[in-house]
Amino acid sequence: xxxxxxxxxxxxxxxxxxxxxxxxxxxxxxxxxxxxxxxxxxxxxxxxxxxxxxxxxxxxxxxxxxxxxxxxxxxxxxxxxxxxxxxxxxxxxxxxxxxxxxxxxxxxxxxxxxxxxxxxxxxxxxxxxxxxxxxxxxxxxxxxxxxxxxxxxxxxxxxxxxxxxxxxxxxx
Length: 172
What we know:
This protein is mainly α. It contains six helices and two strands, in the order H-E-E-H-H-H-H-H.
C-alpha cells in the first residue's frame, strides 16, 4: 500500500509545481496598477512609454478654462500686491496649514504653482465654498478621490480673505 501512495503523491506534487511555473513565464512590458483609486503606470526597462505617474494625477492636471462653481465668475489679476499677499500668508498660516503645506502634498495639495494649473476663479471658489465645488465641479471631485476622500474644510473665509490667500499663492 505504501509503494502505491508515494508515486501518486509525487505525481500530484509534480503537476502542482509545473502548473505554478507556467503562470510565471508570462512577460509584461507595461501594465497599469490601481492603488487607492489612483492609476499608476508601471514600466519595465523595455517599455517605450513616456507617460509619467504625475501626468495622470488630478492635482497635476492643467485646466486653465474651468472657473469652478461659486460666487467668483471673473477675476483679473494685475501686479502682485505684496501687502495683500502678506495678509494672505497670515490667513493661510492660521487657517490652512493643518491640511496644506506650501511646497509638498499633505492631506491636501500644495498651493505652490497652483495658478499654473488652475484659474484664479477656480481657486477662489474652492476656498470660498468647497462643499459646492466638491459636489458640482468635476475636477474637485477627482481631487477628492486623489486625496483619499478627505474633503476640503470650509473655513468660512470672506471674499477679501480668500483673495488675500490667492495673492499669497501668487508669490510662492
